[in-house]
TrEMBL record:
<comment type="pathway">
    <text>Lipid metabolism.</text>
</comment>
<keyword id="KW-0594">Phospholipid biosynthesis</keyword>
<feature type="domain" description="Phospholipid/glycerol acyltransferase">
    <location>
        <begin position="66"/>
        <end position="181"/>
    </location>
</feature>
<comment type="similarity">
    <text>Belongs to the 1-acyl-sn-glycerol-3-phosphate acyltransferase family.</text>
</comment>
<dbReference type="GO" id="GO:0016024">
    <property type="term" value="P:CDP-diacylglycerol biosynthetic process"/>
</dbReference>
<protein>
    <recommendedName>
        <fullName>1-acyl-sn-glycerol-3-phosphate acyltransferase</fullName>
        <ecNumber>2.3.1.51</ecNumber>
    </recommendedName>
</protein>
<keyword id="KW-0443">Lipid metabolism</keyword>
<dbReference type="InterPro" id="IPR004552">
    <property type="entry name" value="AGP_acyltrans"/>
</dbReference>
<dbReference type="InterPro" id="IPR002123">
    <property type="entry name" value="Plipid/glycerol_acylTrfase"/>
</dbReference>
<keyword id="KW-0812">Transmembrane</keyword>
<keyword id="KW-0472">Membrane</keyword>
<feature type="transmembrane region" description="Helical">
    <location>
        <begin position="6"/>
        <end position="26"/>
    </location>
</feature>
<dbReference type="GO" id="GO:0006654">
    <property type="term" value="P:phosphatidic acid biosynthetic process"/>
</dbReference>
<comment type="pathway">
    <text>Phospholipid metabolism; CDP-diacylglycerol biosynthesis; CDP-diacylglycerol from sn-glycerol 3-phosphate: step 2/3.</text>
</comment>
<dbReference type="GO" id="GO:0005886">
    <property type="term" value="C:plasma membrane"/>
</dbReference>
<keyword id="KW-0808">Transferase</keyword>
<dbReference type="GO" id="GO:0003841">
    <property type="term" value="F:1-acylglycerol-3-phosphate O-acyltransferase activity"/>
</dbReference>
Length: 240
């Protein structure tokens, strides 16, 4: 019964969000704050799903554009990670999303960037254009560097695109971690705690493209270690 009720409520909330958000996007297509607006709306669904989201901002706040590196676990990212998306931020998504009826068109209209990962040359062109947008339009980019869902099985290897983009744009990289979400089920009343933590910015100014692999490896290790700690903390909070 809970599963059916939640599914219906969630469907209604998403429909209203897309209708309202779609109208706003038509009035201000690809505006810099459209994605933030949608993120806020989606984050309101977390309590409906029985999830308590705790958001932690970095101790060293940045007002400059940056590249956010977020771990990607499952579809619940839409309702947890979104609580941390700041204004002036757009996400990078795969080009195939554009063909998803309604959602794909709004995803593009809201200002997000689509990338063709199957075409290496086009993918690099998109990342170069993204670096230019960061500088010219003072935009931050939200990227899932794993490129696919981890299903809560730790941090998968990173693809290099996000790191090339940050170095090209000369902006900092801000790791964003969500604690394990594999326990979340729609038929469970209390789905516990998910901690979203934005780590301190990591500067890329002065780095060369030849240092991408070292930078990626260093940040992956930092995020992986911190994710283990967050998972333990979230589990302890749920056990209380």
């Amino acid at each position: 019964m809970l599963l059916i009720l939640r599914t219906l409520v969630l469907a209604v909330m998403l429909l209203l969000a897309f209708v309202f958000g779609g109208l706003v996007c038509l009035l201000r297509p690809r505006h810099r704050d459209n994605v933030h607006m949608f993120a806020k709306i989606f984050s309101y669904a977390a309590p409906v799903l029985g999830i308590k989201v705790i958001v932690r901002k970095p101790s060293v706040a940045t007002t400059e554009p940056c590249v956010f590196l977020a771990n990607h676990q499952n579809n619940f990212d839409m309702f947890t990670h979104t609580a941390a998306v700041p204004k002036g931020t757009v996400s990078l998504g795969k080009k195939s999303l554009a063909w998803v009826p309604f959602f794909g068109q709004i995803y593009w209209l809201s200002g997000n960037i689509l990338i063709d990962r199957k075409n290496r040359n086009r993918a690099f062109e998109t990342m170069a254009q993204t670096a230019k947008k960061i500088k010219d339009k003072c935009l931050s980019i939200w990227i899932f560097p794993e490129g696919t869902r981890s299903r809560g099985k730790g941090l998968l290897p990173f693809k290099s695109g996000a790191f090339h983009t940050a170095i090209d744009a000369g902006v900092a990289m801000v790791p964003v971690l969500a604690s394990n979400q594999s326990h979340i089920k729609l038929n469970r009343w209390n789905n516990g705690v998910v901690i979203i933590e934005m780590m301190d910015p990591i500067e890329t100014k002065g780095l060369a493209k030849s240092q991408v692999k070292e930078l990626s490896k260093r940040i992956h290790a930092m995020m992986s270690n911190r994710l283990t700690q967050l998972d333990q903390e979230a589990s302890a909070l749920m056990a209380k």
